Amino acid sequence: MTTSTTRRRGLARFVPAVAAALGLSLVLAACGGSDDEGGSGDGGNGDLSVTFLPKNLGNPYFDASSTGGEAAVEEFGGTFKEVGPSEATPDSQVSYINTLTQQGTGAIAISANDPKAIGDALQEARDAGTKVVTFDSDTDPEFRDLFVSQADAKGIAGKQVELIAKAIGDKGKIAILSASANATNQNEWIRLMEEELKANHPNIELVETVYGDDDDQTSFDKTAALLQKHSDLKGIVSPTTVGIAAAARYLSDSQYKGKVALTGLGTPDQMREYVKNGTVGSFALWSPEDLGYLTAFASKALIEGDIEGKEGDTFKAGKLGDYTVGADGVVVLGEPLEFNKDNIDDFNF
Amino acid sequence: MTSLIHPSDSATEKLTRTYRDHQRPLWQRALLNRDVAVWAALVAVFLYASATVPFFDRPITITYLLLDVAPILLIALPMTLVIITGEIDLSVASTVALASVSFGVLYDKGTPILLAAVAALLVGLVCGALNGFLVTALGLPSLAVTIGTLALYRGIAVGLLGTTAITDFPDTWTDWARGRIGDSDIPSIMIPFAVLAVLFIVLLHFTAFGRGVYAIGLNEGAARFSGIRVERTKLLLFVLTGVVSALAGIYYTLRYGSARGDNANGMEMQVIAAVLLGGVSIFGGRGALPGVIAGVLLIGAIGSALRLADQTADVINIVTGLLLVVAVVGSSVLGWVSSKRRRRGAPEPRSSTTPPGTPTPGTTKADTDVPVGEREREDR
């Protein structure tokens, strides 16, 4: 009797792990199953398969760029895919790049979370024959074939300074609500904004730069803290879509609505409500859909060997027309657009 | 009433006197345990994914997998010991970041790279020692202490470098961190890991110190009275965790070629999840290193397979989370079921000792009474 009970007990102990393994297999089967039809299509042939790898998923800005990318890929008859990490940490994209290298995708269109950390993985992808196009946020130039830039940094910084100067009458204290402290783009723009302010707007004083980490709640809290700390603040510039939306949400429910100006880079969909209720006068952005669209066409041109990413190479980008590769393999989309209550309803992204 | 309980008591005493874990034959003890179960799950996932997920069966998968989980593998070793003593260290990822930043800053300031690496290890040692001091000397709960130092170390790391990253490390070092052993598919980092794994397995499973680690987790008071130096053991384990985390931080920095304050954000949860999945009890006293190593690889393999199957990060998190819940809940449910079965099984030897012709009302009374006495016994 004793032996039979203990044997049962011994087996019972083994059961949970076996159950776990079986359960997992089922989950994998379910996930794998749904993938099989799509996976076999885009994985192997590699011809015109373009995979978008944004900084993180669930970010409206990158949703828009991927929409544009998908439209372009459909237009030229390739296969589109979007993968990405849930958090925009420096290393989080590496495992996705590795996965794409294994799958042999035709081109990776990536917005880099870190200019260096993903370099080695990208290099391995290129060694395996995959083309690498960065968009929105670049890596060090040696790690990619092409960088599709939303606009040159100087233009973006200048536009935001122009908008805030207009909003506060070119005089008074302003603050900047940025993304994460390490964000490549934002830091470059902030540096250029500081230069522009010093050179052409001596009466505007930049009192503080705070970082909302591209997180809605953090940005919201940082806005509240800014307004408490600087009671005579005239305006806030937020060069990130998450930041400006959170700041606008705070301002529109507070006593500062209409008194403290807010501008920066935002998407029309997120900002429509605040432009219409008077919290925000105007803000700027390039079209992320066009950015994704151009990136997809640049990827196609690279895969087909029309261009190599050298200065002076030219390629056609569907409805956007012809583009020429500039120095360091950079393609510039164009000037940022200004959105205000007169034109905001013309845009949907 | 009392006369009815007594015979059953003496009967169960005979049953419980044997040391439960040694009741079963050796082959059962060797094969039917959690470690083997986790390894079996790992093999199952590998076989299944190789058969169904495109590109998973390539050798490069293993290379990438091991590169990705290497820091987690390293930190899981000392973390296992810490959790077995019934403590926890949530500050490991922040220690990784602080070591990474210290390493980068020192190297950037012109310190020879070897010296910078040693200094980073010392930073890890100090981080671990501070945790250990607060837990053992001041008697604070490790959960609270390390939540505090999680924020503290991360804050210092981000503060030291601000918005910048240090990226220019010598190629010989970064190439080694990304390289493989000879022509094989195994990353070079697996050499130091293997050495550390052997050291930790010997320490935990084959020394008196390791026996003490289990004893502290099972019953700290009893361990203290039996002569185990509880505070010193715990302090040493926190220091070891700090040093190994710093080592992982140096590796992390070299592998990604970037020293940043937000490196390894959230890694503490991956480490702890893997340790628990590997069969270590969060309440301490139970678990083994081979299972933990399999647990880390299992989480890595699932992530790798799901990514290759084009699943999003959210799906990967959901699957890993579910697996962890199933593993933890499953084992405690099974523990409850088997203790219940033992309770049901217990009266049987008694029925052979009591005369067959017991009157009916007496039996029903005995049936309700015996499990109570039995339960008290099981709780010990």
Describe, in plain words, how this protein is organized in 3D.
The complex is a heterodimer of chains A (349) and B (380). Chain A has helices at 2-43, 60-75, 94-103, 119-127, 153-168, 184-200, 216-229, 241-252, 268-276, 288-303; strands at residues 49-53, 79-82, 107-110, 131-135, 146-149, 172-178, 204-211, 233-238, 261-264, 282-285, 314-316, 322-324, 330-332, 337-340. Chain A has 10 helices and 14 strands. Chain A has 349 residues and is an alpha/beta fold. In chain A, strand 11 and strand 12 form a beta hairpin. Chain A has 3 domains: 1-42; 44-150 and 288-333, Rossmann fold; 153-285, Rossmann fold (3-Layer(aba) Sandwich), CATH 3.40.50. Chain B is mostly helical. Chain B has a domain at 64-292. Chain B contains 17 helices and no strands. Chain B has helices at residues 2-17, 26-31, 34-52, 59-84, 92-108, 113-136, 142-161, 171-178, 190-205, 208-218, 220-225, 230-256, 267-277, 289-308, 313-345, 347-353, 360-379. The longest helix of chain B has 33 residues, at 313-345. Classes of the chains: A alpha/beta (349), B mainly alpha (380). At the A-B interface, helix 1 and helix 3 of A face helix 3, helix 4, helix 12, helix 14 and helix 15 of B.
